[in-house]
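Please discuss these two lines.
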Amino acid sequence: MESLLRLAIVLGGSVLVTLAVGRAADRLARRADARHAETPLWGLLRRCRPPLYVVLLTALLRWSHRASDWAPLRDHREVVDHVLLLCLIGGGAWLAVRVASAVVESSYARYAVRSRDPARVRRVRTQVTLIMRVVAVAVGVLAAAVALVTFPSFRTLGTSLLASAGIVGIVAGVAAQSTLGNLFAGFQIAFGDMVRIGDTVVVGGEWGQVEEVTLTFLTVRTWDERRVTLPVSYFTSRPFENWSRGGAEVTGTVFVHCDHSTPVAPMRARLREFLGLCPTWDGRGWDLAVTDTSPTGITVRALVTAKDADDLWTTRCAVREELVRWLAREHPEALPRVVTAPADHARRR
């Protein structure tokens, strides 16, 4: 009975100390967040409470469980120590990833507020995302390696594993050639500034925005809300269009087929008047010119600009609708006409 009472005291005391320390740390982080509103670091660090609880509780139990004299626990003391050590290693890795993520996200948030270049912000965001994935994988691999070392059987196999590492590395490299190619392509995209999260791209005839970039694949959200997933090696081995490269501003064209009698000058004036009322036109430039002619009519090209691809699409559609509406209302004779004539043999009859 006394041993069970000691076990209850050990467990209850460890839980109470863990909760007290965790709440104290959370309160300090909350106060620091209120005093330093310019940085989100302290608010992000509050997300580290679950792994902190795990680390504190595991460390306290590993230190205090020997005080209980419970027979089952005493008979399996080595197994309990080993399980608690594995939990401590896993909790420490979890806590390290959360802390690193909070520091990196806080630095990115402060940079995004200070920077006035959207393209550079998207570039840094892409790099930060990939760096955090690399850090998480590296910490996970390191934690797994440390956990394996705690097993005596794996420690004795260390020498043979090192001796065969060269052969295993060659076999793994040949077997995972495609995966390794995507991995290095991910680093090339992140630090080569080829494509960034938020960029407007055209790949395989699909137009959309880059939504997610990982070490192995990239997701493009198309205009109709579909997701196109591509390996990152696609962007290092094939040509693609990046409309956000060097800035989000884009220029687009609207083609209208008209009759030869179309009044081009009034049509140009109407376009200028309409663009002045169009909220998606950024005011950088515009033009209207006859770019082609044929025996049946002419081709009029309207040139417009917008701050990004979404506004350009809206502007082009609005300009096309307005020019056709204006021609039908003011100059219906300027609309394209299909000329028909009787055949020659019919005339001779």
In short: Residues 2-114 form one domain.
